[in-house]
Automatic annotation (TrEMBL), chain A:
This is SKP1-like protein. Residues 111-157 form the SKP1 component dimerisation domain. Keywords: Ubl conjugation pathway. One of its GO terms (biological process) is protein ubiquitination. The keyword Repeat does not apply. Part of a SCF (SKP1-cullin-F-box) protein ligase complex.
TrEMBL record, chain B:
This is F-box domain-containing protein. Pfam families: F-box. Residues 58-108 form the F-box domain. Signal peptide: none annotated. SUPFAM superfamilies: F-box domain. It comes from Rhynchospora breviuscula.
Length: 164, 157
């Protein structure tokens, strides 16, 4: 058992095999093998407790179905089920996705990172610049001239068909 | 999110340290980093932007460190990249980097080749002879199966 402690001092007890899905945690555990019991406590800070919860849920789901097996011999039905589950898992607000991406990066969980990124790119798909700004609450700091002339002229590739 | 060892007396300082950086990722107290010898794949943000007021902090794309933003934009469809250039300066820079390192080398999606789709804008060549019947493929499913088997038999010999 490993204990993860979030920034708001909440404790999460996780099986070592489950937490091993994070390459960062795996390295930390590997490094401290054979030491005192207190060393099995890992501090996971800088993020609210909602995210560790989500990450652990994700781990548990994937622990039942390790990736290597998933690709090689998983039945079509099971794969479909997992896909559906992931779609539901990532169907959250954009701030949570943001936190998930950060968490997946620092904990080094490639599949979670890819999943969250794909969801973000799905959100951005086929949207105009204004819409993207609205969704992600970014204020447009470009002047009108820049928007109309400079950027299009500097980046002609956007409007030119590169493969023509 | 930070990973650090809890060394009984250091733990308080660790948590305190993360507060200063706010949502910026990865904070590892320097001494615990060295003592544990963990070479985790974490990197420190190259430059810290000045602190923003509390409300603005939840800018989705901009609150991500730049390298992460680039990774996210690598997943975006390349045809959507153009609009992202106009969103903001940070996103603009990140989109350009993403294009340089990923989109220029990735296989274009079907959408990019839409103009090539023959069924959409097929035009007859000038002075081409009229075709009265459509040429039908002479390969049928059954024949194809035999062909494959024969090939493999030859290969065995």
């Amino acid at each position: 058992m490993i204990t993860l402690i979030s920034s708001d001092k909440r404790k999460f007890h996780v099986l070592e095999e489950v937490a091993n899905q994070s390459l960062t945690i795996r390295d930390v555990i590997e490094d401290r093998r054979g030491r005192r019991r207190a060393d099995r406590i890992i501090l996971v800070t800088n993020i609210n407790s909602k995210i560790p919860e989500k990450v652990i849920v994700y781990w548990l789901r994937h622990f039942l179905m390790p990736e290597e097996i998933a690709h090689a011999s998983m039945s079509h039905k099971k794969a479909e089920k997992l896909k559906k589950w992931e779609a539901k898992f990532f169907d959250t607000d954009i701030d949570t996705l943001n936190d998930l991406i950060l968490a997946a990066d620092s904990l080094d969980i490639p599949s979670l990172f890819d999943g969250a990124c794909e969801k973000v790119s799905d959100i951005l798909k086929n949207r105009s610049a204004e819409e993207v700004g609205e969704i992600s609450k970014i204020e447009n700091e470009f002047t009108h001239e820049e928007e109309e002339e400079e950027i299009p002229s500097e980046n002609a590739w956007v409007w030119r068909n590169e493969f023509a | 999110m930070a990973i650090g060892c809890i060394d009984q007396e250091k733990s308080f300082r660790l948590v305190h340290g993360t507060k200063i950086l706010g949502r910026k990722r990865v904070v590892i107290a320097q001494d615990s980093f060295n003592s544990s010898g963990v070479l985790s794949p974490v990197s420190f943000p190259q430059k810290r932007r000045s602190r923003r007021p509390q409300i603005e902090r939840f800018n989705m794309l901009e609150s991500l460190p730049k390298d992460m933003l680039v990774k996210v934009l690598c997943k975006v469809d390349s045809s959507d990249l153009g609009q992202l250039l106009l969103v903001s300066k940070t996103v603009n820079e990140a989109a350009l980097i993403a294009r340089k390192i990923h989109h220029l080398y990735s296989t274009p999606t079907k959408r990019t080749f839409k103009w090539l789709d023959a069924s959409n804008n097929y035009e007859d060549a000038p002075n081409a002879p009229m075709q009265h019947r459509v040429a039908r493929s002479r390969i049928k499913g059954k024949n194809l199966a035999c062909l494959a088997v024969d090939l493999f038999l030859n290969y065995d010999e």
